[in-house]
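the two lines:
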Amino acid sequence: MAEICILPEKCVGCRKCLPACPYGAISMQGRMAVISEACVFCGACVPACRYEAIELRLPQTVQPNPQARGIWVFAEFFAGQFKPVTFELLGEARRLAASSSEPVCAIVLGEQAAQSYRQLWAYGADEVLAVPTAKLDQRDELLYPLALAQLVQAYQPSIFLIGGTGFGRSIAPRIASRLETGLTADCTRLEIDTQSGLLHQTRPAFGGNLMATILCRNRRPQMATVRPHVMQPLAPNINRRGSLTYAEVRLPENHLIQQLDLRLTTSDSLSLESAEIVIGIGRGIGSPRSLPLFQDLAKALGAGLAASRAVVDLGWLPYVHQVGQTGITIAPKVYLAFGISGAVQHLTGLAEGTYIIAVNKDPHAPIFQVADERVVADCIPLAEAMLSMAKPKPKPERPV
Amino acid sequence: MEIVVCVKQVPATTRVQLDPRTRTIIREGVELMLNPFDAYALEEALRLREAHGGTVSVLTMGIPSAAVMLREALAMGADQAILLTDRRFAGADTLATATTLAAAIRKLGTVDLILCGRQAIDGDTAQVGPELAEKLGIPHTTAISKIEQVSTESLICQKMVDEGYARLRVQLPALLTVVKEINTPRFPTLAGFRRAQKSDILIWKVEDLDVDPGRIGLEGSPTQVISTFVPEQHKTSIVVEGTLSEIASQILASLQQQTGREQHG
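prediction for all of em together
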């Protein structure tokens, strides 16, 4: 097992390692630092010690599979379309491929989805690996992991990227667990190290004030999920051609989980987790009577509608709208906050890099400390002014 | 109905405060608490027991002081509490954590339902639940907002999906991760605390589990954090001022600029 110790002959009691520990696991005992059981062997303290008094011994490791090759992207398909995060990941995979010269491969499951393979070429896939069976036409938390794990075992990619949608975040860990490999959630940056060839996966840690870079050294594939809007898609090129391979997988009948019905959220119908613009409302909007104004504004701007915990606890909006620590995490390009004070618990629900426009009457509201644009104003008249300017675009009916 | 609830002790503040001058972490007085999502899982388990009978076991992996959190769970009404604590479990990533929890659940014997919070608010990965279900070879589903019907063989539940809500029939045994919408957790009672003080917390170490020591803790973790750093703050914030319509058009212009969308109308 791993071990960490402070060398008593080297420790001078300078306390420099104490603040370096993200887990608060180091304390002083007399003139010497001691490491408590809260330590998870992250090694952050080692470079913080100028006297080389901290020794971290990591266990011996196995070698990764040298055959593993290819950057895979799972192409999530719902209601006749690929989720946009698929194209964003293909764009990112192309960028990674430039530094590793590995092919980019999109994985499509289901008879319907497989027919749209050309779109995956257009967005950057060199190869499309399709399992065109009707059994996989509907997203399935049991069968998809089984199918994808079998494909990985057969084709051995080195990297496997999955969009951080609700479904992606459910199946990715199941696949990683089946394959006994590592998975990093919600990466905001991916880089291939040119020397080691390893995928450097960076994600926010500790509520986003720190970033952590994570490696999966010895197992393949190196798996990561990435939230929608974090990566950039390529401009689609319909003349781009790649290869298409049909694969078969062995699947049981799924008697274990059965979807009875699916109720699409109507009205402010944009899925919060994938909306480019999200309007957030807090208690500062005054009363639930103002809700229709913000719902109309959201519709006019093609935005999702989010709420602070206070608004949900007051019963003004249902829980699906709650963003933050006990709600959902969103990654829009722009977050337009009306009457939101900006409690840490709420801000935790916004992905790193979100452009924040904050409107609040109180010039001292904490949200202004993190906002890119600050507007000290009354929410209601401003929202009314915006609504009258933003002409609602006719929106196509959502396919079901 | 035999229910296991997996819980985690987390810092009460997840967004660490940084010293603005030295850019190091301020760690004073950080209290630990039961992960809020896990409180919903525990409450749901207690309600299911009240309606259908059975037992509720709470299970955690953590440092010895996590026993405090387990006492709170007992005070809320859990029947038994198990603490997996051993230096050799430390440094586990989500896979090694799932492997360890799976070994403990197998040791418990027959289990009909495993409930977890959707995610822990410190790591925020939402991975341990599905990874654990795979290790146990049972179905899982995530983000459950309501359990509607329960029979000995299956249950019907409502799940939050990106596009709305889905209703599912899930065969038991199964693992569900739950969200806040599912219930409002009860508070522990004084009588509950008295009872909890008298209950024993089972403490299991590596030797107590049928598990390969190479698959747990840091050694069994395929992922490793190689560095942590403070993100560069290059935020230059703009103050938007003027008449209401000036501000409104400025905001609309920013929305277009940031999203790269075309001009409306």
